[in-house]
Amino acid sequence: MAAVVSVPVFPASQPTIGWGVIEFVESNLVQPDGDEAGEPFRLTPEQKRFLLWFYAVDPAGRFVYRRATLRRAKGWGKSPFLAAIGIAELLGPVRFAGLDADGDPFGEVHPMPWIVVAGVSETQTENTMAAIRSMLEGTEIVDDLGVDVGKTRILLPSGGKIIPITASASTQEGARPSFAILDETHHWTKANGGAKLARTVRRNLAKSRDGSARAIETTNAHAPGEESVAESSYLAWRAVAEGRSKASGILYDSREAAGDIDLADDVQLRAGLIDAYGDATWIDIDRILAEVLDPDTPPEEARRFYLNQIVAAADSWVSPAEWHDTRSEQISLLATGDVLGSGKRQRHSGDTVTLGFDGSLTDDSTALVAVRVDDGAPFLLGVWEKPEGPQGAGWEVPKDQVRDAVDNAFATLDVVAFFSDVAYWETDIDAWRDEYGERLVVKATTRHAVGWDMRGHQMDTVRGVEAVWRAIVDKTLPWRSHLLEYGPATGANAEEIMTRHVLNARRRPNRWGVSFGKESRESPKKVDVLAALVIARMARSAVLASGALKKRSRSTGRVAGF
Q1: Which H helix or E strand runs over 400?
Q2: What does the radius of gyration of the chain's CA atoms come to, in whole angstroms?
Q3: Among the three residues 237, 270, 305, which one is the final residue of a domain in this structure?
Q4: Are residues 123 and 257 in the same domain?
Q5: What domain range is 454 assigned to?
Q6: Residue 16, SS3 per DSSP
Q7: Count of domains in the chain?
Q8: Residue 541 in 3-state DSSP?
Q9: Is 25 contained in some domain?
Q10: CB-based contacts of 176: which residues, under 8 Å, 6+ apart?
Q11: 262 domain-assigned
């Protein structure tokens, strides 16, 4: 078990003006509360790393990131840290000014800073505003610069200011802030006006003349399905990271405990809390441990708020912990080379596999999954997803790429069964039957070698879904990230894509048992890779039950899987 972090160590080669911001904060601000209140404010290594990334610049001096999310466990110190950044944005060297004699970038003070501290209520904004006042009061910088520290606003003689705003989003339209703090966005929803406020703040920031106005939001782990701003920011970051969006400039900094922490194991739990809180040395781990073990603390809340884990929704098909627990470290790939024309990895021609295909045309994803017969290991051979944002308008699945992927799978793998859902792809499925049907030792149905109508065979499909679910919770469905790398069709490590589709799935009971589906019919959270995995595993089960491979090995001397 180890902490899961989303931001790497800051490289020395990356230009940043963050060093100047760090020096400003530690030289001028004081600790706002606790036993060390009034003492010089000291940043932890994690906080410094975040500042270096947030203030990273490109060769032209433009910020690399336009918005950031800082996700940490409850009590980590998000509000004081954001208060320090807000003061730096008001008074510190937060805008690129040029290069020094060594060629390193340095910053300068914004000429007319306008910082907004946003929340869905006055109580929420007061968390950060109170920290700002405490960090400034009694410091030399207040007297030197004539800072007016008021109860509801911080003002400069030049007109610069820090002001709180709440969810009356319509009153904020037209403002031109230079920096925004969005606090506790896991509480910001459509119902309380938070979603609209976040959109309004971001539109206002985008109007800055130099393009340097930005925002940071803080959050605990969000609850999936609540459609909070924290959840939408997480999904936006994942879309960018996986190549489903052409957007850029989103920094997502999270530190959480490993997903396999057993709350009933005191040793594991303590280690998980230490991992989640990192270098927040002011946290009393024993007290947090007691809160987690308190009978009045629901386990899902303990994971969200203290271990900083995104906990599965109540109707999730599998939980993140169940899915990650089944990852195997024992699988080995049989060869390397070119896979599906990608210049990436190749499955060995001796790998005996079954294929599963779930296709769409415009909105849902299209996925091709292979399952190795001897151990059941899945391989994501390709996934084609509608890009997010404007580039998704009018998008259609590139059928030629899908056909090439299927052809290359048959060219490089020993495919012994191929089950494909029939919707939208009837003509291609018939073509695959005609081209490859004779190679398949098991047919999808008595009427078609490849076509498998998941809706027309609901009872059998539900049994296949339940078999995959059981394999996951029993840890007998082995997968591992390096086996799932594909490349051109995914744009990212396929581990993340397969994981996303599996964890997006929601339980859907019917008269045959428990199947799965999307959150809703129009949900952008796709599950098609899981559908392809299920029918690929169904094909494998049919092959094993038929005994056809044993017959083939006796007649040819070939052993399945090698």
Answers
A1: helix 399-412
A2: 27
A3: 305
A4: yes
A5: 320-556
A6: strand
A7: 2
A8: helix
A9: yes
A10: 114, 204, 207, 208, 213
A11: yes
**Would you say 152 and 164 are in contact if contact means Cβ atoms under 8 Å apart?**
yes
Is the domain of 236 the same as that of 377?
no
Closest CA to 287 of 73, 516, 519: 73
3-class state of residue 83 by DSSP? helix
Single out the residue of 354, 411, 397 nearest to residue 379, CA to CA: 354
Residue 283's identity, in one-letter code, is I
Tokens 């048992």 belong to residue = 513
How far from chain centre, in Å, is Cα 465?
Answer: 25
For 409-436, the pLDDT digits (tens) are: 999 899 999 999 988 899 999 999 999 9
Distances in Å between the Cα of 526 and the Cα atoms of 305, 473, 509 are: 27, 21, 19
Q: Which two tokens stand for residue 177?
A: 């802030």
β 4-5/250-256 pair status: antiparallel
Burial 123-162, CB ≥16 within 10 A → b, else e:
ebbbbbbbbbbbbbeebeebeeeebebeeeebbbeeebbb
Q: For 26-69, what is each residue's pLDDT tens digit?
A: 999 999 987 788 899 999 999 999 999 999 999 999 999 999 99
Residue 282 contacts residue 274 (beta carbons within 8 Å): no
Structure tokens at 444: 């999808």
> Quick check: helix, strand or coil at residue 257?
coil
Q: Which two tokens stand for residue 350?
A: 């001796």
Domain boundary residue among 258, 279, 305? 305
Indicate which CATH number applies to the domain containing 363: 3.30.420.240
Whether 324 and 270 map to the same domain: the answer is no
- Closest alpha carbon to 22 in 33, 34, 13, 10: 10
- 313 token code pair: 């929704």
Q: How far is CA 213 from the centre of its chain?
A: 24
- The tens digit of pLDDT for each residue in 131-154 reads 999 999 889 999 999 999 998 899
